[in-house]
Structure formats: C-alpha cells, structure tokens
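Lab notebook, design round three. We kept the backbone fixed and only want residue identities now. Task for the bench partner: fill in a sequence for the structure below.
Input structure tokens:
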C-alpha cells in the first residue's frame, strides 16, 4: 500500500500524508498531479489518499473506494433516542454501565448504538482485523462532524483495537466484558449498503470457530451475541439460541450465561 495526498492542495496536505504513512507503516509517495488510476498502475498497490477532511482507500481490484462515514448509525441513533428501542440493543440485553466488546467492528455502526445504550458509565471497544481500516475508522470516529451531538459524543467514545479477534480474546481475563458481539460476513450474501460495498474489498474474512466462541463465552459476563443471515448454519453449530424476526434477512443468536447459570 502507498500513501499520497488528494490531488487538490497536495502541497498543503503533504505533511499530514507523511504522518499517516508513518502511523500505518506504509510508504508515502508524492501525488505529482497524477490520477488514482495512474498511481495504482505505477506502484501496483492499493492507495490511501489523505484529503483535507477524510481518508479514502482505493483497491487495485475495484473502482469502489472505502472511506469512513456513520453508515446506518445516523438513522438508527435517532430512532433509538426517540423510542428507546433498537433490535441490536435488545438482542445484546444492554444496560447502562455495561462493557461491550464488538469483535467485528467494520464501520462501527453497532458499536455506536451500543455506546448510546450503555451511556456515559459504559464502555465499548471494537476489534478490526485490517490495521489500515482500523486506523481509518478510529480517525473517522474522532473527526466526523456531520451528526447530532449525542451521536458524535458516542462516536468519540469508541475504542478501536487492531488485530485478529481470536488472538485478542485469548489475551483477555475471564468475564472482562458484559457482552461480546460478532457480526461476521454472512455465509449467504445480502445486497450490501453503499457504505459496506467499499469495505468489502479490504475486510479480512474471519470465520467463527468453536474455539473462538468458547473464548467469547469465557470473556463475557452475561451474553455472547451473533448476528448472521437467517439461513446461517453457525447458530446451531455453535450453540446460539436464535431470536427470530419475521421477514428479516438476518437474525440474532444468543448465548446467555445468566440463563445457563439458572
């Protein structure tokens, strides 16, 4: 991967681009008024463009770029704040003050809703396997401004970790989070939103395994939750109780440790 500036104001953005290159551990290359296509063809590499207001990641294999934006979180947050209800919040059984670990962060839409639900005394941490995507999402959560104040406050509070969730889970103490959440790429594809289309080319497709689920159960105090396609075999394979929703393309599977203890 190479790092460069936006075409406009390249000189003014050079120091910022060099800082990003240092942060993500990739090489900076001067733009020299070349197009994205020309740079990718020359360097045969993915391209991260540093603009005045955002980072944009271009793949060698697709014309759809990836950049951070709140995606569905903007609409969902308004609905949740107005009604006090969100199906994800219900499935996770979130309470004020909870600590939540999102093992498949993506654009952090669920993590942001979780932060609204757990409130100022709760914490939400998300794991993103691709280190450059993790950097971009953390930057976006920190700098995005086009949203209402409660959403912005929640966004600023998300902690992003870069790594493989199986490795990071194994390092955590027993019952260190109230809820551990997974939203892996579905086994059966759905029509993806515009926001997810760009991410798909950079996502690291981490499937679940019994070992990962066992680690999640160990780390969770109360509940492990899996979001997946309604036809997914992973619910039954790993022992999740499915919360079925009529006409929904995806369901939530729950392993409730409190119920098991009872």
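Proposed sequence:
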């Amino acid at each position: 991967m190479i790092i460069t500036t936006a075409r406009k104001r390249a000189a003014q953005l050079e120091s910022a681009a060099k800082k990003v290159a240092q942060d993500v551990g990739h090489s900076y290359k001067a733009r020299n008024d070349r197009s994205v296509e020309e740079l990718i063809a020359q360097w045969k590499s993915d391209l991260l463009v540093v603009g005045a207001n955002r980072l944009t990641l271009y793949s060698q294999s697709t014309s759809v770029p990836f950049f951070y934006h709140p995606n569905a979180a903007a609409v969902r947050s308004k609905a949740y704040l107005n009604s006090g209800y969100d199906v994800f919040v219900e499935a996770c059984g979130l309470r004020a003050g909870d600590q939540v670990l999102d093992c498949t962060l993506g654009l952090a839409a669920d993590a942001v809703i979780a932060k609204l639900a757990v409130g100022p005394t709760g914490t939400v941490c998300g794991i993103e396997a691709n280190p450059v995507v993790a950097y971009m999402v953390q930057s976006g959560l920190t700098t995005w401004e086009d949203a209402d104040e409660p959403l912005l406050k929640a966004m600023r509070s998300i902690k992003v970790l870069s790594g493989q969730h199986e490795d990071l889970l194994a390092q955590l103490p027993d019952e260190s989070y109230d809820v551990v959440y997974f939203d892996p790429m579905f086994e059966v594809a759905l029509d993806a939103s515009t926001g997810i289309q760009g991410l798909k080319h950079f996502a690291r497709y981490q499937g679940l395994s019994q070992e990962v689920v066992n680690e999640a159960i160990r780390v969770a105090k109360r509940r492990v939750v899996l979001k997946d396609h309604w036809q997914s075999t992973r619910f039954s394979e790993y022992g999740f109780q499915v919360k079925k929703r009529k006409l929904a393309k995806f369901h939530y599977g729950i392993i409730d440790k409190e119920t098991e203890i009872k």
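Keep this in mind before ordering anything: Confidence is low (pLDDT under 50) at residues 186-191.
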